[in-house]
Amino acid sequence: MLTTGLSCPARFTGSLPLSELSLKTIRLQGTVVLRAMVGADGTIEQIQVISGHPILVQAAREAVRQWRYRPYFLNGMAIPVETEVTVKFVLNQ
């Protein structure tokens, strides 16, 4: 439930680090779940790992650290917000 006056999250830049070729080479796929603190300026300030394979966790952390979000606003003021991020690594056949 959103508090009145709180804007919704929206990532507006960022990509995943491992190329499809790298994933195929190591034959690894899976999901990584992270908890990220998005600063008032939209940058990622902290990342906490919730779950995922260690190799994929490292790749996901590197990617998410580069992501930028539109700042969250509460009653017209930009505020830091914690959010959960799910990163899926899938091998295409």
Question: Could you characterize the architecture of this molecule?
Answer:
The N terminus is likely disordered. This protein starts with 10 loop residues before the first strand and ends with a strand. It is built from two helices and seven strands, in the order E-H-E-E-H-E-E-E-E. It has a single domain, classed as TolA/TonB C-terminal domain, CATH 3.30.2420. Strand 2 and strand 3 form a beta hairpin. The protein is of the alpha+beta class and 93 residues long.
Residues in β-strands, percent: 35-45%
Q: Which structural class do you get from the secondary structure elements? A: alpha+beta
Low-confidence stretches: 1-8
What is the averaged pLDDT score? 80
| Termini gap | 39 Å
Query: What is the CATH architecture term?
Result: 2-Layer Sandwich
CATH class: Alpha Beta
What is the third-level CATH name, the topology? TolA/TonB C-terminal domain
Radius of gyration in whole Å, from Cα?
15 Å
CATH level-4 homologous superfamily: TonB
Supply the number of structural domains. Answer: 1
Total count of strands: 7
**How many helical stretches?**
2
User: Shape, please?
Assistant: elongated
Order of helices and strands: EHEEHEEEE
- Which sequence of strands runs across the widest sheet? 3-2-7
In helices, the fraction of residues equals 10-25%
Major sheet attributes: 3 strands, antiparallel
